[in-house]
Amino acid sequence: MSHDNMSKDTLPESHDSHGTEVAAHGDPFADPGLPAHEPRRTDIDERAAKRAERQVSLLFILSMLSTVGFIASFVIFPIDKIVYIFPIGHVSALNFSLGLTLGVALFCIGAGAVHWARTLMSDHELPAERHAIEADDEVRADVIEQFKTGAAESGFGRRKMIRNTLIGSMALVPLSGVVLLRDLGPLPEDKLEHTGWKEATKAKPIQLINMNTNEPMKPEDIVVGSLSFAKPEGLEEDSHEFQVQIAKDALMLIRIAPEDIKDKESRDKGFEGILAYSKICTHVGCPISLYEQQTHHALCPCHQSTFDLADGARVIFGPAGHPLPQLKITVDEKGYLVATGDFDEPVGPSYWERSR
């Protein structure tokens, strides 16, 4: 009779329905256990262990040197320097050196840790049966004991060379991230404090140039209730720095009857009711271009910050943090409107380093 026709009841206890042999205790597969532990060369030869320790330490030292090289690259290589690297081709010297040094620094830490684990740390396998997620007191005590045993067998406390070089490499690598912040751009220094009007003095004033006609402006060009825009003399639209400079230099000119100007200091900085304010909103730097003639209010179209230009451009509504900076103006010997100094406050949004 074939096995296919044989009844399950007629099979021996040592076979399943397909005739497969079953272990004596009833499990389909017996636990083969772990193979006998074979000691490594570093376990039985102290000279080999010392050699492995030096190799691990060397990798950590290379990591430290690479981190120093990463930082040095920012100083050595200009951002526009191009070099030829075979077989890659022409690449940025700065980018190539940063990638190479940071990659070596991280690789050496990983390689050192792996080499340490494979040659010097204990490699005895400790099987454990699956258990409930929540551990009882006995299991927790066993885990703590195993941790202490592992720490002792790792030689972290005994092998000071490895310990110290690992700490050194791990301490230096984060400096790479700190240095990367320097790559966000050049330091502003005091550039945010000044604009293109900073060169203006009483002895050498700067003319106000109409943004639409590109011609110098006279007081009679500006009528009461009008709004005009100006830029400093010498700032040309085809210049490389125009967009950068106009974002700080742009002027908003309005003319108010002198008796309607509420703030005396603001009136004194103007000329015959002509007031020159920064066009850049003090909230997030949007250009202001909306002016209400009857109330003398200027409105930022981005977030509706509203400034009273008849009262020192103070904020009367919206999220802006401070008034619009004002530029002191007068006329030169030819009757053209000129500036005799920079804005009284840094233009644009507030920032924590503001000195004024």
From TrEMBL:
One of its GO terms (molecular function) is monooxygenase activity. Residues 1-39 are annotated as: Disordered. Its main location: membrane. It is a multi-pass membrane protein. The keyword Electron transport applies. Keywords: 2Fe-2S, Cell membrane, Disulfide bond, Electron transport, Iron, Iron-sulfur, Membrane, Metal-binding, Oxidoreductase, Respiratory chain, Transmembrane, Transmembrane helix, Transport. It is found in: Cell membrane. Residues 267-338 form the Rieske domain. The keyword Transmembrane helix applies. This is Cytochrome bc1 complex Rieske iron-sulfur subunit. It comes from Kitasatospora gansuensis. The lineage of its organism: Bacteria, Bacillati, Actinomycetota, Actinomycetes, Kitasatosporales.
